[in-house]
Amino acid sequence: MRDQFLVEVADTSAAELTEQQLTPAAALLELNGFFTAWIESVYHHQVHSETGQTPLARWNDGWDRVGHPPIMATALALTEAFLWSALRTVTKTATVSLHGNTYQVEAALAGRKVELVFSPFNLEVIEVRHDDRSYGHAVPYRITRHTHPKARPETPEPAPAPTTGIAYLQLVADAHHQQVASDDRIGFDALYSRPERHPQPSPEQSSLAERTDDEHSQQVGR
Q1: Full-prediction pTM beyond 0.70?
Q2: In a domain, 36, yes or no
Q3: Lower Cβ count inside 10 Å, N or C end of the chain?
Q4: Do both 88 and 138 map to the same domain?
Q5: What average pLDDT score do residues 192-210 get?
Q6: What pLDDT score was predicted for residue 8?
């Protein structure tokens, strides 16, 4: 996204938007349109380095045989997926150590090997697990390090890549517009088209209307 999309987005001040006769809301809508076009036309069709699949192919593979959509991970599951863990043997005094820190655990775990589950950026909160069962959080006894030594701090944003010099996002948006208009997906352009105020009736409708008028006239004449 940084190398292909954001690099093509120029910072625009409020004064510049006024010169272009654009409101902030209209500019944001335009930006969202470009981003949607880039996602659907470019990103979803590029092979991901980790999965070995394009995002679109991986999404389609997630549907089961009866058409149920992929099961999305919960926030709790995502948090669990990014936690770190380490195995430690509990001492006779029911303590464990982790990178210079000492923690107190349940006395029943003395002499047993436990799994310490934690965020590498906060070594003060450690969950203790044994035999697939949670024994709650360890009690910090002596803390000398607050983060894991291998936890990488956030690095500053790299310098932006040079722009392509062409209206890349506009080209992507035009291609996306043609793609949407030519396939079987919902034609979003129809949402903005103005229907005829007085559509012409079909021959069948005209004939039915004439018969209805004749019957009504006969009833009135009686």
Answers
A1: no
A2: yes
A3: C
A4: yes
A5: 47
A6: 86
| Whole-number Å distance between alpha carbons of 173 and 41 | 8
For the four alpha carbons of 185, 189, 192 and 193, in that order, the dihedral sign comes to negative
HSE, CB side, 13 Å, CA atoms: give it for residue 121. Answer: 4
Same-domain pairing of 185 and 138? no
Q: What is the pLDDT of residues 62-117, one digit of tens each?
A: 887 777 888 888 999 999 999 999 999 999 999 999 999 999 999 999 999 999 99
Confirm whether 95 is domain-assigned: yes
pLDDT at position 88 is 97
Residue 26 within any structural domain of the chain: yes
- With tokens 């949407």, the residue in question is 180
CA distances for 125 relative to 20, 28, 73, 138, angstroms: 52, 41, 24, 7
**Whether the Cβ atoms of residue 135 and residue 105 lie closer than 8 Å to each other:** yes
Q: For the chain, how many residues are written?
A: 222
Strands in 69-197 per DSSP E: 84-89, 95-98, 101-104, 113-119, 122-130, 133-137, 139-142
Residue 147 lies in a domain: no
**How high does pLDDT run on average in the chain?**
80
Q: CA 71 to CA 134: how far, in whole Å?
A: 26
Torsion angle (degrees, nearest 10) of CA 114, 120, 122, 123: 40
Q: What are the φ/ψ torsions at residue 160 (nearest 5 degrees)? A: -65, 145
Domain hosting residue 88, numbered range: 83-142
